[in-house]
Amino acid sequence: MHEDKILPVEEMVAWEEFTGRVEILRELDSWIKNIQRRASPSTALIAPRRMGKTVLLDRLVNTVFFKPEYKVAPFYFKVKREHTTLRKFLLEYATTFFRQYLAYCVQDPFMYLNAEIKLEELLECPSEHKAVTLAKDFIKSFLNRYYDTKYDHPKYDDSRNHWDAFIRTPENLASFSGTRVAVIIDEFQDMKFYIHDVPESDLDGIMEKRRINPDMVGTNLTATYDRQSQSKKAPMLVSGSAVTLIFRTVMGGPLGGRFGFTYLKPISIPDGASLLQTLLPLYAPKRRITPEMALYASTQVTGHPYYLYCIATSVHEGEIFETKDAVDSVISYEIQQGKIYGFWQTHFEDNRKYINADNDEELGKKIIYYFTKYNNQPVDTKEIAQKLNVSKKAVDEKIEKLYLADLVFRSRAKYYTFNDICLMRYIKFVYEQDIEDVEKIDLSQQNQYNNLKGRFLELIVQVTMMKFNNEILPGSFFGKTGEIKVPLFSNVDTKYAKGYKTNLYQIDVCARHYYEYYNFWICECKYTKTKMGIKQVEKLEQAAKALKQEAEDAGRAASKIQMWLVSTGGFTQEVLDYTAQREDIYVSDYEGINGIFRKFGGNYRIPLFVNQDGQDDKG
């Protein structure tokens, strides 16, 4: 699509750089589609900076724009961090909405993209579309009020009243025309700070006050969406990278209880390896990396897309990533003096009032240092207090400050660190040299990498199955003739199955159908060069029986189960002969699973880890 069409949103990354995110993109696409039947409540997408949130929203709009059958216009507004008056902001907001709404109705991506179009010019849009005709009436009404001289006067500025009235325009237009609206606002929390209900002449004074007091707020426009956020015909999808602030904005105050929310996490380790394989030819064509080392690099940065970009674009010397030491070297460089260092150094300076404001500065540094051991885990404040021989209250107070500085988040009444090992390594690098009498913390990911190698095939299968969405694939990928339609799954994970009178079985990968709730695919993975024998087939069959028995014991309908055997070493002839007669058993050898992996974004062959003896090394 990107090669032969103008896209309504200019994406910040090359089309092929967009990697992974299939599940969340599919969920958001469904969210927009379901607006037409009034089944999509307002929601928030929350992610730390550089996680790929805006890139995801760009791709979402570029996808749903070309789906006129949805009859849902994506209104996509990016809040700028520039001080402006409410009057000017109102005109920009209204112009953007009407331009994008009309562009969707007439399927004109250039109109959607072209911010130079003035609001008055939209009245000349040639179309008999019912929604366009109605939108023009709304535009005329807006212009009449906006430019009415009795309102445009220093003694009586109507901007706030006009803004409050305009908030409901997307919903009203959606109601009258039948073409609904998805109100998508990026960096929603910034609508508290940069818009000021003052005359233009007072704006310079406001900016000077902000320079002296960076915490000064503007006119809080987020609170004005209290009614709009409950709309079923024009619900809101808001996002923000100031995690604590956006969370408090949508979950408390006037908007409390009106939004759901989703945390955007790093991409999967296999997708991270694919991203690195894509980035290197684009940004560093002389650099080469093996699939195994791409996987290692992705593990070391936990699939964080920005850190993988930093690796690919690093100015650190070295052109070939053939060893772990070479990968570790470039990551260390980026954390200690490269782009990752610069990113977090700036963040810490911007939030120093929370991070460094301690009565006991040495204790504060030690608490921050110890908190790094809880990467992607609940922070055990009691354990930290015991190690430092201080009160738990002192640790809690410090962690609360880190929460305000967006270094931890709250969930289930606990503080959790983000899954960000590079942040933890940055903290370790900066603080370890300044403090004494602390237990050294090991942030090596080697154990995780070794564990990952042992179950990498399972992870590949799991990640790939989550991308299935009723595609038609060659039957040869599954050891069958003809073609096979792969279903959409709602949940894919490892599972234990046990009926009342059966043994307990571990299923490597168990996937539940999205539409047929009691139907499953279950998968047995063998990640060696040895052929899979009949005993492992029998084991999977027993697991299938246990899964069915488990359902019957719970009083549920008997499950329909499709079994899938995946073996990088292939299968014995006995297995091939047996499964050839069974439509409920698929088999994929090394070529088969690689073929499926490539169909769903994999750009490298699944590595077969080998140790010094030439045998398979699974960690």
TrEMBL record:
Keywords on record: Hydrolase
Q: Which residues form a coiled coil?
A: none
One GO MF term attached to the UniProt entry = hydrolase activity
Source domain of life is Bacteria
Q: Does the keyword Hydrolase apply?
A: yes
Which residue ranges does UniProt annotate as crossing the membrane? none
Task: Tell me yes or no: is Lipid metabolism among this UniProt entry's keywords.
Answer: no
- Which protein, by its recorded name, is this? NTP hydrolase p-loop-containing
Q: Source species, please?
A: Desulfonema limicola
